[in-house]
Amino acid sequence: MPRKVQRTNTISIRLTDSEKLDWELFAHAAGLTISQLAREAMNRVKVTNVGDRAIQMKRTYQIAKIGNNLNQIARWANTYTNTIEAVEVITYLIAIEKALLALASTKGSE
User: What InterPro entries does the entry give (predicted)?
Assistant: First the structure.
């Protein structure tokens, strides 16, 4: 049987009456104490520093620009579907899509 963890440290926060009530209701609905709720919520939070956010925003902007260009190319390819050039462009679009999916799956691991 697992041994109960002895928690001896306390953190306090200031809340309005309304905020405190929200916390109490939320914890009660989840079947948790407020302390348990806070610990579980803390385990789900991902903290990023300002530099990470700036890099992520720049990366998102660049991917959006690429997406806009790809939409223009796809529109052209759909307009000229009977030409050899369109087939070649579509082949490249598929390769670009795969590369973008691979880039997106890295989730900023640089």
Answer: NikA-like
pLDDT band (50, 70, 90) for residue 110: very low
List, for residues 50-106, the tens digit of each pLDDT value.
Answer: 777 788 888 888 888 888 888 888 787 778 777 777 777 778 888 888 887 777 776
Are the C-beta atoms of residues 55 and 63 closer than 8 Å to each other?
no
Rg (C-alpha) for the chain, rounded Å, is 25
Q: Phi and psi for 8 in degrees, rounded to 5? A: -120, -10
Task: Indicate the domain borders of the chain.
Answer: 16-45, 58-107
Contacts of 59 (CB under 8 A, 6+ apart): 108
Please check whether residue 33 is in contact with residue 27, taking contact to mean a CB–CB distance below 8 angstroms.
yes
d(CA 30, CA 80): 56
